[in-house]
Design brief:
It is a single chain. By secondary structure, this protein is mainly beta. Helix content is 11%, strand content 43%. The chain has helices spanning 9-16, 81-86, 202-205, 230-240, and strands at residues 29-39, 49-66, 71-73, 92-94, 101-105, 109-112, 117-125, 127-136, 154-162, 167-174, 180-189, 194-201, 215-216, 222-224, 245-251. The strands form 2 sheets. Strands 1, 2, 5, 6, 7, 8, 9, 10, 11, 12, 13, 14 and 15 form a 13-stranded mixed β-sheet that branches. A two-stranded antiparallel ribbon has the order 3-4. A hairpin with a 4-residue loop joins strand 9 (154-162) and strand 10 (167-174). The longest helix has 11 residues, at 230-240. The chain starts with 8 loop residues before the first helix and ends with a strand.
Length: 255
């Protein structure tokens, strides 16, 4: 059995002719489309701010699928350092082992999350899927030709309002040092037609931010999230939270 965390063309071909562990049948090569979209924030966040987004862009890819399933645990907030700088602790993968690589989309794409977009076709094999790894990559001039991300993995703009009547127009950017590993995706993959949809919960991205910690950027009154601020740290924690990404299989798409 070939094991590893990254598929190459040669590995995919080898996996197609190798019996998957515990499956009892041989894997077959296949492809399926992968797309990314978003769900919008609803209601006030943990700090009492209601957010209206004007734009939300992200650099996505590669995306890799694995057989390993995710066991979610919950850390007690009093022991969680991130709860001090980013808000309440959330569920995270516990004792996660990726296991065999099952498929991958190697391209990197700049996605308008408010509109949604395809990432490309995954080169994959049939078998038991349990999780995926999502890279929010630093864009290049090629992957972000329009400069929508200002050189960062994520850029969001909008207005946040609190219950006291305060209002903050903001532009926030952030990057992640590593891929988001251990995102739940459980599917017994055969040769059926369909596609994978990754929904980014923007409410969780923004859910721990105290917008009062942003600072004035320019004469237009647009605020930013300085490095080291609660606002920037909270945004990064939301981006790292594996439960932010809801991955589903949707039947019926063209192969």
């Amino acid at each position: 059995m070939i094991r590893g965390h990254v598929l190459t063309g040669a590995l995919a071909l080898a996996a197609a002719s190798t019996a998957l562990s515990g499956c009892g049948s041989e894997a077959e090569r296949r492809t399926f489309p992968v797309e990314v979209a978003a769900t919008l924030p609803t209601g006030a966040n943990e700090k009492g701010w209601t957010v209206t987004l004007d734009s939300a862009h992200v650099s996505v890819g590669p995306v890799r699928f694995f057989e390993g399933r995710v066991l979610l645990t919950r850390r007690a907030p009093r022991f969680d350092w991130y709860s001090l700088i980013g808000g309440t602790a959330h569920a995270h993968p516990g004792h996660y082992l990726p296991g065999d690589a099952m498929g991958e989309v190697l391209t990197t794409t700049t996605v308008d999350l408010l509109a949604g977009a395809p990432l490309g076709d995954a080169s994959a094999v049939t078998g038991e899927y349990g999780s995926l790894e999502l890279t929010l990559a630093t864009p290049t001039a090629t992957t972000d030709e329009r400069g929508l991300l200002s050189g960062h993995a994520v850029r969001v703009t909008g207005t946040a309002r609190n219950g006291d009547g305060g209002s903050v127009r903001f532009e926030a950017v952030a990057d992640l040092p590593a891929p988001v590993a251990g995102v739940r995706f459980e599917k017994s993959m055969g040769m059926e037609a369909g596609r994978v949809r990754i929904a980014v919960d923007l409410g969780k991205w923004l859910g721990r931010i105290d917008f009062a910690t942003a600072t004035d950027l320019d004469a237009d009154g647009i605020f930013t999230f300085p490095v080291g601020s609660q606002a920037r740290n909270a945004l990064v924690r939301g981006m790292e939270d594996t439960t932010t990404y809801v991955v589903t299989w949707e039947e019926g798409a063209a192969q």
